[in-house]
Fold this sequence. Notes:
Low-confidence stretches: none
Structural class: mainly alpha
Number of helices: 2
Largest sheet: none
Radius of gyration: 15 Å
Mean pLDDT: 79
Amino acid sequence: MVAWNNFWSDVTVTAVWFGMLPALGSGVAGLNIAPEVPAMTMSRHIVFGAVIGILSKSLFEERK
Length: 64
């Protein structure tokens, strides 16, 4: 479980912090906007992932 979570954290950092935000003119990790942006983007991805995981859990459970 820990390795899986680390993988998605790495994906968030690589794709969002070093890809999307600089492409939008926000600088690396969005630091040109505000110093809180890196923590906000990481927490949003963790919360959204948890919600999607909880909501889709029933789709992957075996029905008895």
